[in-house]
Amino acid sequence: xxxxxxxxxxxxxxxxxxxxxxxxxxxxxxxxxxxxxxxxxxxxxxxxxxxxxxxxxxxxxxxxxxxxxxxxxxxxxxxxxxxxxxxxxxxxxxxxxxxxxxxxxxxxxxxxxxxxxxxxxxxxxxxxxxxxxxxxxxxxxxxxxxxxxxxxxxxxxxxxxxxxxxxxxxxxxxxxxxxxxxxxxxxxxxxxxxxxxxxxxxxxxxxxxxxx
Length: 212
Description:
mainly alpha
């Protein structure tokens, strides 16, 4: 495995950890049992990657070819359910919301650029649209599945410039790719993270239908 390939693998593992933590925290907030918490963490951590691979015709998806992704997600989600961790997270609602925001934001930033890179690797001659579309779906797909299982309207449709941040990061990564794949991915991930955190801090939202 080349140095770049190894680096990308660890980036994807980090994204899985972040999304698993975010999904598990959603389960804790919903007062789910251990199985529910682990399932939400697993679904969020792997759902976007599965959708990405299916869209690109990569079968079976990487999660089923390498169980490491699922193992990492399950272990991280189970860790979030341990009583001391749950107490620490739920003791302060603001701290809990901040932890969930940071985990979710890191996850969407990393999975956006991994989605763009996977698209280019699968189809080197792919146009701009597939890169943007798959990058955004890879980042948001797991969160949509998580929210549906948690019986909530997906964050993607309601809250703080979520998908647009991923789309912007995918665009930065795509247009800088020919300059430097590594730095384009770093720039794309940073773009997503900065926009998402700014949107959360300043409470930026697109106008909702009731406001129009």
